Amino acid sequence: MQELSEALMSSPDENGDSVKLESSQSLKGKNAAMVLCWLLGNGCLFAWNGMLTSQDYYVTLFPKYHTARVLTLVYQPFALGTLSILAYNEAKINTRRRNLIGYILFFISSTAVLVIDFASSGKGGLGSFIGICIASAAFGTADAHVQGGMTGDLSLMCPEFIQSFLAGMAASGAITSSLRFLTKAAFENSKNGLRKGAIMFLTLSAMYELLCVLLYAYVFGKLPIVKYYRAKAASEGARTVVADLAAGGIQTEHAKAENGSRQLERLSNKELLLQNIDYAIDLFLIYVLTLSIFPGFLFEDTGSHSLGQWYSLVLVAAYNVSDLIGRYIPVVERIKLESRKGIMAASIGRFILIPAFYFTAKHGDQGWMIMLTSFLGLTNGYLTICIFTEAPSGYKGPEQNALGNLLVVCLLVGIFSGVVLDWMWLIGKGW
């Protein structure tokens, strides 16, 4: 309890109740925490985006299997199913163990993709494709552990942390696209250059996931500001942060006993979902639209243009960069959308992009398609940040953690639905 008392300061309010006050000592390390949140968010999708941006290699390796669509379709059920189970039991789950399992699984899966390629000597075949699909399922399972666990954990801290984490997730797409351009260009004129570039790129992905394991295990939880917010959540009855606090040198056994009844006073998951049903619907609508277009439609249905084999990579890069930019726009408070009705209207209004993409693919040139793809990413990132930074405000630590998990579930339901609907673009084309 001594460490917990140092992390939190108390003073009586007008009713004589104890109020937690933030001390300058306990809030040190905010900038470092934001950087780490960004890096960890990057690691949440770095390996998966690495596989997506290597689709030019996999399309060549497995020309009959619609890899851009199939791998995403394999990924999403495992992500959604695992996250649904974890979100239902979030109040009892050790968040530290959950996040570490996720990042370690990302590293193992990334390494497995390389092993499969080396074992087949880059010749493809059904066996290799099944192995890649298994790795994709493992990525989905890892994503469910990390994305839900980190979002829930950071939701009980300051909004800047969740914004940095989500921006890092978007940055993973922009960074992987940039790296893929470099590796593709570096080996473009060499023998078997497409495979060499993909292997180098996938190796970098595996190394980065290992870095995330080390950062989360040994650095993030020891920052004073992170200790403060986790101690604050523990004082409000959260049990999910106990292992992280212990790793940071704070023991909370007495706090757990004193606040056991307070855990029972928190809103149930059903109550939280009903109070935030509009945010849940917004996230579903945002991601069902985005994933019905990205990446499958962009890789397979936009026709041939002067950019040739680079065209699909340029479109993916345009989406990823604009998504990243969109996640930083709400940092400027004046242009951050806080109205719940406004967010709903914007989420519904984005569906005008479906006919826009359809007619542009048929009659437009590549400049219009790049512009549309950029707008798709910009609105996706902007609205995501507006929702995740606004929704947790006004709730206690345990409720914020639960709400963060629930919103990620709604996001993944939207992604899964979008991935399924993406196949509708193939109707009438001959499968």
TrEMBL record:
It is found in: Membrane. It is a multi-pass membrane protein. Residues 1-21 are annotated as: Disordered. Keywords: Membrane, Transmembrane, Transmembrane helix, Transport. The chain crosses the membrane at residues 31-48, 68-88, 100-120, 126-146, 158-179, 199-220, 279-298, 310-330, 342-361, 367-391, 403-426. It comes from the Eukaryota. Pfam families: Nucleoside_tran. GO terms for cellular component: plasma membrane. One of its GO terms (molecular function) is nucleoside transmembrane transporter activity. The keyword Signal does not apply. Coiled coil: none annotated. Belongs to the SLC29A/ENT transporter (TC 2.A.57) family. This is Equilibrative nucleoside transporter. The lineage of its organism: Eukaryota, Viridiplantae, Streptophyta, Embryophyta, Tracheophyta.
